[in-house]
Design goal:
The structure is a single chain. With about 150 residues, the protein is α+β, with helices and mostly antiparallel strands. It folds into two domains: about 40 residues, Winged helix-like DNA-binding domain superfamily/Winged helix DNA-binding domain (Arc Repressor Mutant, subunit A, Orthogonal Bundle), CATH 1.10.10; about 80 residues, Alpha-Beta Plaits. Helices cover about 35% and strands about 20% of the residues. It is built from five helices and four strands, in the order H-H-H-E-H-E-E-H-E. A four-stranded antiparallel β-sheet has the order 2-3-1-4. A hairpin with a 6-residue loop joins strand 2 and strand 3. The protein is elongated. The two termini are about 15 Å apart.
Length: about 150
């Protein structure tokens, strides 16, 4: 889908605040409400806008620690990759998971209360997933950047 300057401005504004009213958005973009709404619907239907969500503060929810787990699997068959992905989906503490190239197969981002909570998660959930050959954990000390997607102009 080709995006023009109005579409890009709409997307940037929605990434900052998806709860703003259509009137506020229209004013920011420089369009009236009707064409602004038409553009939003078109981008939703084209899959450019996949949905709307809320950013939560993990620390205030009692999950101040983030762990990045690097995982290597025994097998790289389609079935093994599918089953591993399915197992991760069932673990609420798993925030994101990426199949990657390089030394490891997956990078898994996990939100936990503390090191004890993470140790419990390892024993009770992660280490019970069949097919894990090796894992390495790194606690995030500080988040330096967390942002919206860049949109090409």
């Amino acid at each position: 889908m080709d995006l023009d300057k109005f579409d890009i401005t709409i997307l940037e504004a929605l990434q900052r605040d998806a709860r703003m009213s259509l009137q506020e958005l229209s004013q920011q973009v420089g369009l009236t409400s009707s064409p602004c709404w038409t553009r939003i619907r078109r981008m939703e239907q084209a899959g450019v806008i996949e949905g709307y969500t809320v950013r939560l503060n993990a620390e205030r929810l009692g999950l101040p620690d983030t762990v990045i787990v690097h995982v290597t699997l025994d097998s790289h068959s389609d079935e093994a990759l599918f089953e591993f992905g399915r197992a991760l989906e069932a673990i609420p503490e798993v925030v994101e998971a990426f199949l990657v190239s390089g030394d490891y197969d997956y990078y898994v981002k996990i939100a936990v209360r503390d090191t004890r909570d993470y140790e419990r998660l390892l024993r009770e959930r992660l280490y019970k997933i069949p097919g894990i050959r090796h894992s390495k954990s790194s606690f995030v000390l500080r988040t330096l950047k967390q942002s919206a997607l860049p949109i090409r102009r």
